[in-house]
Design brief:
This protein has 390 residues and is mainly alpha-helical. The chain contains 15 helices and 8 strands. It is globular.
Length: 390
């Protein structure tokens, strides 16, 4: 028995010595070798069905997540509060973001807008989201809420009038807004020189207008149809040229904070971008005039309305008159729909008279009731009425 134990011990000892001789002891680490070649670039990640789309901007080195993501309410950027305000806006609660086709997505969806600012092709967006925080901002890559897009270069606003050149727009940070709030193309275009009874404009679609993004044109006083025998339209340049609008743009009026701070702060101004608000259970309209007071110091918060010096009242009255004339002629219905289809064309003779319909749709879709440019808007509608009454 003892011999078997000694034999087993000897075998184990020999085995350990063999293993030790094969592995040896670890010596000191040698010098670092030269850096290897750079590896191949990785492939883009995916965003659900939007395979290969790049929306992630990366992280700023000095970014501190707790600046926004913390157990308490964020007191640096008020991110959560801004998000709630945005939900009250047409950007957040409207239906325009369903326009996810490649021709529309660059303005109607966050994903398309990001690609547009990166000078990338905008395809159909399979899973669209409305224009939200990350459309205008890239806080993870910048560490703050500065605007995503460069606003220093001027924009080109195409003309939809025959013989009239395109215009430019450069109103500071407002360029980001007007990058989308500008007109699309139109066909056929109205021609001021086609005044003969033999000149006819044929409209084949009830969407014969420069889209809903005409705010940039109205603000700077361009883009309207002008008859050759009518006086030039006056412009209210203060709404686009005076400081601080010339540097901060649309946000001066649409994103001013409502004062007093404890009243309607999440329902008007800020990221709601709304100028008016009717509180639940009330018939009184609350109007955001804080931005207006930059120039109109006599306006009083809480009592003044946007109808400064009766300009909105005069404009609305004229628009009602113009609409009545267009309905009587059978060019639109009472819901402001143009009565034209591909199978039932709307023919206007002389063709230049179609400018009245063009101006009406432009002012209607501007949505400001003339406030963006009171003098220009009122001259447009009055000239249109005069033309139809000839």
């Amino acid at each position: 028995m003892m011999k078997k134990v000694l034999w087993s011990f000897s075998v184990c000892l020999v085995s350990l010595l063999v293993i030790a001789s094969l592995t040896g002891c670890k010596g000191p680490e040698g010098p670092t070798g030269p850096q290897g070649d750079k590896g191949d670039a990785g492939t883009n990640g995916t965003n659900g069905l939007n395979a290969g789309f790049v929306y992630f901007d990366g992280f700023k080195d000095s970014l501190k997540c707790a600046g926004c993501h913390n157990p308490d309410q964020d007191t640096t950027f008020f991110t959560k509060a801004r998000a709630y305000q945005w939900e009250e806006s047409l950007h957040g609660g409207g239906t325009a973001w369903e326009e996810n086709r490649s021709s529309c997505a660059e303005c109607h969806t966050t994903e398309g807008f990001i690609r547009k600012t990166k000078n990338m092709t905008v395809p159909d967006i399979a899973n669209p989201t409305p224009p939200g925080c990350f459309a205008c901002h890239s806080p993870h890559s910048t560490g703050d809420y500065s605007l995503r897009a460069t606003t220093s270069s001027q924009l080109t606003l195409n003309s939809n009038i025959t013989g009239v050149a395109a215009s430019t727009f450069n109103v500071g940070k407002g360029n980001l807004c007007v990058g989308c709030h500008r007109p699309r193309t139109l066909s056929p275009t109205p021609d001021p020189t086609k005044t003969a009874t033999t000149d006819t404009l044929k409209i084949t679609s009830n969407r014969w207008y420069a889209h809903y993004g005409v705010q940039g044109q109205i603000l700077t006083g361009v883009g309207a149809f002008q008859w050759t025998d009518a006086a030039a339209y006056t412009k209210t340049t203060a709404h686009s040229a005076n400081a601080p609008i010339s540097t901060d743009g649309c946000s001066v009026c649409h994103m001013a904070d409502y004062s007093p701070a404890n009243a309607y702060g999440g329902k008007i101004g800020g990221h709601t971008m709304k100028i008016t608000y009717v509180p639940e259970g009330s018939t009184s309209t609350i109007t955001l005039v804080n931005g207006c007071k930059v120039c109109h110091s006599s306006m009083t918060v809480g009592t003044s309305t946007i109808d400064y010096n009766g300009k909105v009242t005069a404009f609305n009255k004229n628009m009602d008159t113009l609409k009545s004339l267009l309905v009587t002629k059978g060019w639109i219905d009472t819901l402001d729909v143009i009565k034209a289809t591909s199978s039932s064309n709307l023919k206007i003779t002389p063709a230049s008279r179609s400018g009245a319909l063009f101006n009406y749709m432009m002012l209607l879709h501007d949505g400001s009731h003339g406030v963006h440019n009171p003098a220009y808007a009122n001259d447009m509608v009055r000239a249109s009425i005069t033309e139809l009454r000839k």
